[in-house]
Amino acid sequence: MPKKPALIPRFNSEADEAEWWDAHPEAAVDIMKHAVKSGKARRAVPLKAVTMRLPVPDIEAAQELAARKRLPYQTYIKMLLHEALEKARRSA
Question: Domains in the chain: how many in total?
Fold first, then answer.
């Protein structure tokens, strides 16, 4: 019988939730595996690979900040770009 994904408790605060996820990293993996097997995991937006030349200090800063957040630096740069584009769209 397939294993069901972890039950996620209700949290009183964002700090409580972060602490729980830090203590149960396998829960996210189980949830994603279950979603993939059930066909519910899909990428909402298609991706396209691009090549950009960025200043080395900017890349180093992104790597340092991403490491603090425990994220891959390219993911972090993508998040920053997305946030900046959304902000620009709202103000346009």
Answer: 2
